């Protein structure tokens, strides 16, 4: 991949759509940093879709940054546009490891969630029903029990119910995001009370459908693995806030990026890296 393959663009913020819930404390921290630094360090990553005659941009990564800019009344935003159907882009799922809560207590919390019914089933059935979307997720307890969560068949309704499910327990448990549903991978003490909330592995077209329909999944359960991320672009906010037209802003952006590339200020790292200043 070369730097010239990057697709960076300034787009109207009102055309940018989220597919996941946001954490307002995190947004407030980003908002304060943006206000103090006056730069957008890392552009949100989006995919472009057509909504009738209108171009929309679905955020794959950067929902908090997008929301913080919106709260600051910034009219436009710099984004990195990627091809959602590229074989190099992967969409995986995070699950929630829940510690130190009894199955009975967790069930009581979920009993308060609108429309959700818990159905006992084995893991093979739960995996199949999750794939077919006849359940919205399932709970796997380390005592061996599994409960599928049912709530309608519409993907937007299910996404809303999933957000309610997460809100019902997130402040009452020790919670970790995990990729595996194997307790042995995560628990040093097998006797410790634990459950794993298993989420569906969404497809790109489902994420786009949710965003266009105003649906949102819980924050951080979709895991986009995106090669060639544009980091540390450090675009001055004054460019986004200016009264110039979008065309003028993007002309300025093209010239700015061209200068950076000519001066060898853009570097592509072929290998994965660890960043310690995020």
General description of the model:
This protein is 33% helix and 25% strand. By secondary structure, it is an alpha+beta fold. Strand 4 (45-51) and strand 5 (54-61) form a beta hairpin. The protein folds into 2 domains: 3-90 and 224-262, Conserved hypothetical protein from pyrococcus furiosus pfu- 392566-001, ParB domain, CATH 3.90.1530.10; 95-198, Conserved hypothetical protein from pyrococcus furiosus pfu- 392566-001, domain 2 (2-Layer Sandwich). It has 9 helices and 15 strands.
Outline the fold blueprint.
Layout: E1 8-12, E2 16-17, H1 24-37, E3 39-40, E4 45-51, E5 54-61, H2 63-71, E6 76-81, E7 90-93, E8 95-99, H3 103-111, E9 117-120, H4 123-132, E10 137-141, E11 146-150, H5 155-169, E12 174-178, H6 183-186, E13 194-198, H7 204-212, E14 222-225, E15 235-236, H8 237-241, H9 246-262
Parallel strand pairs: 2-5, 4-6
Antiparallel strand pairs: 1-6, 3-15, 4-5, 7-14, 8-12, 8-13, 9-11, 10-11, 10-13
Helix pairs in contact: 1-2
Helix share, percent: 25-40%
**Arithmetic mean of pLDDT:** 91
The domain tally reads: 2
CATH topology annotation of the largest domain: Conserved hypothetical protein from pyrococcus furiosus pfu- 392566-001, ParB domain
Overall strand count: 15
The largest sheet is: 6 strands, antiparallel
Element-by-element helix/strand order:
EEHEEEHEEEHEHEEHEHEHEEHH
Can you list the strand order of the major beta sheet?
Answer: 9-11-10-13-8-12
The number of distinct helices, counting runs of at least 4 residues, comes to 9
């Amino acid at each position: 991949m070369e730097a010239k393959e990057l697709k960076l663009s300034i787009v109207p913020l009102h055309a940018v759509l989220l597919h996941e819930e946001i954490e307002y404390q995190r947004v407030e921290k980003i908002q304060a940093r943006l206000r103090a630094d006056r730069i957008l360090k890392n552009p949100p990553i989006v995919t472009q879709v057509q909504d009738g005659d209108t171009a929309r941009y679905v955020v794959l990564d950067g929902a908090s940054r997008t929301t913080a800019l919106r709260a600051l009344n910034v009219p436009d935003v710099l984004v990195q546009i990627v091809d959602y159907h590229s074989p190099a882009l992967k969409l995986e799922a995070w699950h929630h490891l829940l510690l130190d809560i009894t199955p009975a207590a967790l069930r009581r919390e979920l009993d308060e969630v609108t429309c959700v019914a818990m159905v006992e089933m084995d893991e093979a059935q739960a995996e199949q029903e999750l794939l077919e979307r006849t359940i919205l997720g399932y709970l796997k307890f380390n005592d061996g029990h599994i409960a599928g969560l049912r709530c309608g068949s519409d993907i937007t309704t299910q996404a809303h119910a999933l957000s309610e499910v997460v809100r019902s327990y997130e402040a009452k448990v020790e919670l970790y995001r995990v990729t595996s549903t194997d307790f042995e991978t995560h628990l040093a003490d097998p006797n410790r009370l634990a459950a794993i909330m298993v989420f569906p592995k969404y497809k790109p077209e489902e994420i786009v459908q949710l965003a266009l329909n105003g649906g949102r999944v819980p924050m951080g359960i979709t895991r986009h693995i995106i090669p060639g991320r544009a980091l540390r672009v450090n675009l001055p906010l004054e460019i986004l806030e200016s009264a110039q037209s979008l065309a003028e802003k993007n002309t300025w952006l093209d010239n700015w990026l061209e200068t950076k590339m000519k001066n060898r200020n853009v570097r592509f790292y072929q290998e994965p890296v660890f960043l310690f200043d995020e």
